[in-house]
What we know:
The chain has about 190 residues and is an alpha+beta fold. Helices cover about 15% and strands about 25% of the residues. The chain has four helices and 14 strands.
Amino acid sequence: MELASSTAAASWIERSLWPWERPWLRAGSVIPEGFTAYARIVHPSERESEPFTGSLPRPAAERLVDVLRGFTFAADRCWFGIWDGFGFLDQDRYEPVPKVRVPNRAYLLFQGPIDVIKSMEWNLSWQTPNLWWPEDRSWCVATEIDLAETYVGGSDACIARILEDRGLDAFPMRLDARIIDGHAVDPEESPMS
């Protein structure tokens, strides 16, 4: 995985995310609009405690990579946005680097093959990118640092395949779903729709 010298490859994401609304955050503020279908993957709990937040756990990440590889022609050229506030990053090194800027977040941008997701160790700490997508933009994956689920946008066939995978705790999601207590809830199900 190589650090990108420009953030131009992410300009479509900067334009496609919804603003953060208060008091409700919507899924469209985390995953870009423009896909025909969306899913949310619920993170499992860590050792019978709270769910894993801010990163897709390794087994789910590996399964998701295997699914998504079949829905892009650019598996060898993907983009990875890593939140610039993680403590494992050398802040002095990355301070002058251009960053992807979206509502309330900034990301360092890296590029590499999709399989780099299967080895996302940062100073012995597992952390998947917060945003990742292939060069052809056939799908996009988003894991907000404060949420216990990962969102995926893609074609109907791509999302159907994710929903069918028994190794992924995945559910269909609407882009206008409200995020309540760390989970996306469709407007019909949420209080004060």
